[in-house]
User: What shape does this take?
Amino acid sequence: MTSSAVVGCSNMQPASAPPANISPAERRELFRRGAQLWPVKCMQCHNARPGSEFTPEQWQMILMHMRTLANLPPQDAQAVYVYLQGGR
Ligand code: HEC
Assistant: This one.
């Protein structure tokens, strides 16, 4: 497995957030995919926590760590992020 860029905790790059300028349709598609990925990928190690439990900023930090644990490629991390935000 090739390890992608190691993202340190001090790196504030919102790696899990989708670009701000995506269209509503693209956003809806990410949401739909995130809704499918979330229970499958995020419940391997613990219960999947609802989006309402954390703020968008907290989710960015959490996903920065969890997407490596869950082995999510960036697009999937974005999908989960959009889903968790949309579920608020
Ligand atoms: C390989 C196992 C694994 C997978 C897969 C995984 N997690 Fe976690 N998760 C952990 C562990 C271990 C902790 C607790 C220790 C820590 O915070 O690093 C944790 C903690 C958390 C927390 C708690 C943070 C807090 O402060 O209470 C949240 C929220 C979370 N994970 C979300 C997710 C989401 C969302 C996904 C899917 C993208 C995911 N996790 C996938 C192992 C995993």
Summary: The helical segments are 24-42, 56-69, 74-86. Residues 41-42, 44-46, 49, 62, 65-67, 69-70, 72, 80 surround heme C (CB under 6 Å). The chain has one domain: 24-86. The CA atoms of residues 42 and 66 lie 8 Å apart.
